[in-house]
Write a structure and sequence with these properties.
The structure holds two protein chains of two kinds. Helix content of chain A is 0%, strand content 53%. In chain A, 39% of the residues are buried. Chain A is globular. In chain A, a hairpin with a 3-residue loop joins strand 4 and strand 5. Chain A is mainly β. Chain A has no helices and eleven strands. In chain A, strands 2, 4, 5, 6, 9, 10 and 11 form a seven-stranded mixed β-sheet that branches. In chain A, strands 1-3-8-7 form a four-stranded antiparallel β-sheet, with no helix packed on it. Chain B is mainly β. Helix content of chain B is 0%, strand content 59%. In chain B, the strands form two sheets. In chain B, strands 2, 4, 5, 9, 10 and 11 form a six-stranded mixed β-sheet that branches. Chain B has a five-stranded antiparallel β-sheet with strand order 1-3-8-7-6, with no helix packed on it. In chain B, a hairpin with a 2-residue loop joins strand 6 and strand 7. The chains are: A mainly beta, B mainly beta. At the A-B interface, strand 5, strand 9 and strand 10 of A face strand 4, strand 5, strand 9 and strand 10 of B.
Chain lengths: 118, 113
Protein backbone atom coordinates (compact mmCIF):
# COMPACT_ATOMS: atom_id res chain seq x y z
CA UNK A 1 0.00 0.00 0.00
CA UNK A 2 1.21 3.53 -0.76
CA UNK A 3 0.31 4.76 2.70
CA UNK A 4 -1.90 7.73 3.46
CA UNK A 5 -1.93 10.14 0.53
CA UNK A 6 -2.58 13.85 0.92
CA UNK A 7 -2.91 16.58 -1.65
CA UNK A 8 -1.84 19.19 -2.26
CA UNK A 9 1.47 19.06 -0.39
CA UNK A 10 1.72 22.83 -0.33
CA UNK A 11 -0.97 25.48 -0.67
CA UNK A 12 -0.56 29.23 -0.69
CA UNK A 13 -3.73 31.27 -0.83
CA UNK A 14 -5.06 34.68 0.00
CA UNK A 15 -7.26 35.49 2.92
CA UNK A 16 -10.91 34.89 2.15
CA UNK A 17 -10.34 32.16 -0.41
CA UNK A 18 -11.70 28.65 -0.08
CA UNK A 19 -9.18 25.92 0.59
CA UNK A 20 -9.81 22.20 0.11
CA UNK A 21 -7.41 19.59 1.44
CA UNK A 22 -7.70 15.99 0.32
CA UNK A 23 -6.85 12.66 1.87
CA UNK A 24 -6.84 9.04 0.75
CA UNK A 25 -6.51 6.66 3.72
CA UNK A 26 -4.86 3.26 3.68
CA UNK A 27 -7.17 0.73 2.09
CA UNK A 28 -9.14 -1.21 4.67
CA UNK A 29 -8.69 1.26 7.49
CA UNK A 30 -11.93 2.13 9.23
CA UNK A 31 -10.76 5.28 11.02
CA UNK A 32 -9.66 8.56 9.50
CA UNK A 33 -8.32 11.54 11.43
CA UNK A 34 -7.58 15.15 10.53
CA UNK A 35 -4.96 16.99 12.60
CA UNK A 36 -3.49 20.48 12.53
CA UNK A 37 0.08 21.22 13.61
CA UNK A 38 1.43 24.65 14.58
CA UNK A 39 4.47 25.72 16.52
CA UNK A 40 2.35 27.31 19.22
CA UNK A 41 -0.24 24.60 19.79
CA UNK A 42 1.48 21.46 18.56
CA UNK A 43 -0.56 18.69 16.97
CA UNK A 44 -4.30 18.97 17.52
CA UNK A 45 -7.07 16.61 16.48
CA UNK A 46 -9.71 18.38 14.42
CA UNK A 47 -12.15 15.61 13.56
CA UNK A 48 -12.25 11.88 13.05
CA UNK A 49 -14.44 9.45 11.14
CA UNK A 50 -15.35 5.81 11.70
CA UNK A 51 -16.67 3.98 8.64
CA UNK A 52 -17.16 7.32 6.88
CA UNK A 53 -19.27 8.75 9.71
CA UNK A 54 -17.98 11.77 11.68
CA UNK A 55 -17.63 10.71 15.32
CA UNK A 56 -16.03 13.67 17.06
CA UNK A 57 -15.67 17.11 15.53
CA UNK A 58 -15.12 18.96 18.80
CA UNK A 59 -11.65 19.99 17.66
CA UNK A 60 -12.89 21.86 14.60
CA UNK A 61 -12.02 25.48 15.44
CA UNK A 62 -15.09 27.16 13.99
CA UNK A 63 -17.80 27.00 11.37
CA UNK A 64 -15.36 28.00 8.65
CA UNK A 65 -14.00 24.45 8.84
CA UNK A 66 -15.87 21.46 7.47
CA UNK A 67 -14.90 17.88 6.71
CA UNK A 68 -16.52 15.15 4.69
CA UNK A 69 -15.88 11.52 3.93
CA UNK A 70 -18.13 10.52 1.02
CA UNK A 71 -16.59 7.05 0.77
CA UNK A 72 -14.04 4.81 2.42
CA UNK A 73 -11.21 6.00 0.22
CA UNK A 74 -11.56 9.77 0.25
CA UNK A 75 -11.95 12.64 2.66
CA UNK A 76 -11.80 16.41 2.38
CA UNK A 77 -11.16 19.20 4.83
CA UNK A 78 -12.47 22.55 3.67
CA UNK A 79 -11.80 26.02 5.02
CA UNK A 80 -14.10 28.77 3.81
CA UNK A 81 -13.23 31.59 4.09
CA UNK A 82 -9.57 31.09 4.98
CA UNK A 83 -7.73 33.41 7.39
CA UNK A 84 -4.01 33.93 8.07
CA UNK A 85 -4.35 32.20 11.46
CA UNK A 86 -5.30 29.01 9.61
CA UNK A 87 -1.73 28.74 8.36
CA UNK A 88 -0.41 25.40 9.60
CA UNK A 89 0.44 21.88 8.50
CA UNK A 90 -2.64 19.70 8.18
CA UNK A 91 -2.21 15.97 8.58
CA UNK A 92 -4.51 13.13 7.72
CA UNK A 93 -4.07 9.78 9.46
CA UNK A 94 -5.84 6.45 9.33
CA UNK A 95 -5.99 3.36 11.49
CA UNK A 96 -7.45 -0.10 11.27
CA UNK A 97 -8.98 -0.32 14.73
CA UNK A 98 -10.33 2.04 17.31
CA UNK A 99 -9.45 2.68 20.90
CA UNK A 100 -8.60 0.12 23.48
CA UNK A 101 -8.09 -2.90 21.32
CA UNK A 102 -6.19 -5.77 22.91
CA UNK A 103 -3.35 -5.35 20.47
CA UNK A 104 -3.18 -1.62 20.40
CA UNK A 105 -3.41 0.10 17.07
CA UNK A 106 -1.31 2.93 15.82
CA UNK A 107 -2.29 5.65 13.40
CA UNK A 108 -0.55 6.02 10.06
CA UNK A 109 0.07 9.59 9.04
CA UNK A 110 0.22 11.17 5.62
CA UNK A 111 2.99 13.63 4.68
CA UNK A 112 0.80 16.63 5.45
CA UNK A 113 -0.36 19.72 3.57
CA UNK A 114 1.51 22.90 4.41
CA UNK A 115 -1.00 25.74 4.18
CA UNK A 116 -0.06 29.41 4.07
CA UNK A 117 -2.82 32.00 4.05
CA UNK A 118 -1.61 35.47 3.16
CA UNK B 1 -8.69 17.43 29.83
CA UNK B 2 -5.56 15.40 29.11
CA UNK B 3 -2.35 17.37 28.82
CA UNK B 4 0.93 15.93 27.60
CA UNK B 5 4.25 17.62 28.30
CA UNK B 6 7.63 16.76 26.84
CA UNK B 7 10.96 17.77 28.28
CA UNK B 8 13.33 18.95 26.99
CA UNK B 9 11.93 20.86 24.01
CA UNK B 10 15.26 20.49 22.22
CA UNK B 11 18.36 18.42 22.75
CA UNK B 12 21.74 18.37 21.04
CA UNK B 13 24.19 15.54 21.65
CA UNK B 14 27.32 14.15 20.02
CA UNK B 15 27.11 10.87 18.17
CA UNK B 16 27.38 7.77 20.34
CA UNK B 17 25.74 9.21 23.44
CA UNK B 18 22.88 7.49 25.20
CA UNK B 19 19.96 9.82 25.84
CA UNK B 20 16.56 9.99 27.49
CA UNK B 21 13.50 11.89 26.37
CA UNK B 22 10.74 12.53 28.88
CA UNK B 23 6.97 12.64 28.57
CA UNK B 24 4.39 13.31 31.27
CA UNK B 25 0.60 13.24 31.13
CA UNK B 26 -2.00 14.53 33.56
CA UNK B 27 -4.73 11.88 33.32
CA UNK B 28 -3.63 8.32 34.04
CA UNK B 29 -6.80 6.84 32.49
CA UNK B 30 -5.14 5.81 29.25
CA UNK B 31 -5.31 2.82 26.94
CA UNK B 32 -1.82 3.22 25.59
CA UNK B 33 1.07 5.58 25.00
CA UNK B 34 2.96 5.92 21.77
CA UNK B 35 6.21 7.50 20.70
CA UNK B 36 6.37 8.93 17.20
CA UNK B 37 9.18 10.29 15.11
CA UNK B 38 8.74 13.26 12.77
CA UNK B 39 11.35 14.23 10.21
CA UNK B 40 11.33 17.77 8.79
CA UNK B 41 8.59 18.22 6.21
CA UNK B 42 7.30 14.71 6.76
CA UNK B 43 4.47 12.99 8.59
CA UNK B 44 4.72 11.07 11.82
CA UNK B 45 5.97 7.51 12.08
CA UNK B 46 5.10 5.34 15.06
CA UNK B 47 8.15 4.00 16.87
CA UNK B 48 6.78 2.22 19.91
CA UNK B 49 3.36 1.61 21.43
CA UNK B 50 3.01 0.65 25.09
CA UNK B 51 -0.29 -0.72 26.31
CA UNK B 52 -1.46 0.57 29.69
CA UNK B 53 -0.84 -2.88 31.22
CA UNK B 54 2.76 -2.94 30.01
CA UNK B 55 5.83 -1.36 31.57
CA UNK B 56 8.09 -1.08 28.56
CA UNK B 57 8.65 -1.81 24.89
CA UNK B 58 11.88 -2.20 22.97
CA UNK B 59 12.75 -1.86 19.32
CA UNK B 60 16.40 -2.01 18.36
CA UNK B 61 18.24 0.83 20.08
CA UNK B 62 14.99 2.30 21.39
CA UNK B 63 13.40 1.48 24.72
CA UNK B 64 10.24 3.12 26.00
CA UNK B 65 8.97 2.79 29.55
CA UNK B 66 5.61 3.65 31.04
CA UNK B 67 4.68 4.45 34.63
CA UNK B 68 0.97 4.92 34.31
CA UNK B 69 0.30 5.73 37.97
CA UNK B 70 2.77 8.60 37.98
CA UNK B 71 1.84 9.75 34.48
CA UNK B 72 5.30 9.41 33.00
CA UNK B 73 7.08 7.78 30.10
CA UNK B 74 10.65 7.86 28.90
CA UNK B 75 12.19 7.07 25.55
CA UNK B 76 15.74 5.82 25.82
CA UNK B 77 17.94 5.95 22.72
CA UNK B 78 21.17 4.00 22.95
CA UNK B 79 24.32 4.86 21.02
CA UNK B 80 22.73 7.78 19.18
CA UNK B 81 23.48 8.33 15.49
CA UNK B 82 23.11 11.38 13.21
CA UNK B 83 20.20 9.56 11.54
CA UNK B 84 18.32 9.76 14.82
CA UNK B 85 18.02 13.52 14.38
CA UNK B 86 14.30 14.28 14.27
CA UNK B 87 11.47 15.48 16.46
CA UNK B 88 10.09 12.85 18.84
CA UNK B 89 6.48 13.13 19.93
CA UNK B 90 4.71 11.35 22.73
CA UNK B 91 0.97 10.67 22.48
CA UNK B 92 -1.56 9.07 24.80
CA UNK B 93 -4.85 7.45 23.90
CA UNK B 94 -7.56 7.94 26.49
CA UNK B 95 -9.85 5.16 27.63
CA UNK B 96 -13.05 7.12 27.08
CA UNK B 97 -14.00 4.86 24.21
CA UNK B 98 -12.92 7.35 21.58
CA UNK B 99 -9.93 6.76 19.34
CA UNK B 100 -8.26 10.06 20.04
CA UNK B 101 -4.60 10.74 20.63
CA UNK B 102 -3.36 13.68 22.68
CA UNK B 103 0.12 14.74 21.64
CA UNK B 104 2.95 16.51 23.38
CA UNK B 105 4.73 19.25 21.49
CA UNK B 106 7.77 17.08 20.97
CA UNK B 107 11.49 17.06 21.62
CA UNK B 108 13.69 18.18 18.74
CA UNK B 109 16.81 16.02 18.76
CA UNK B 110 20.03 16.82 16.94
CA UNK B 111 22.82 14.25 16.93
CA UNK B 112 26.05 15.66 15.59
CA UNK B 113 28.78 13.52 14.00
Amino acid sequence: DAGVIQSPRHEVTEMGQEVTLRCKPISGHDYLFWYRQTMMRGLELLIYFNNNVPIDDSGMPEDRFSAKMPNASFSTLKIQPSEPRDSAVYFCASSLLGAGGPVGETQYFGPGTRLLVL
Amino acid sequence: KQEVTQIPAALSVPEGENLVLNCSFTDSAIYNLQWFRQDPGKGLTSLLLIQSSQREQTSGRLNASLDKSSGRSTLYIAASQPGDSATYLCAVEGDSGYSTLTFGKGTMLLVSP
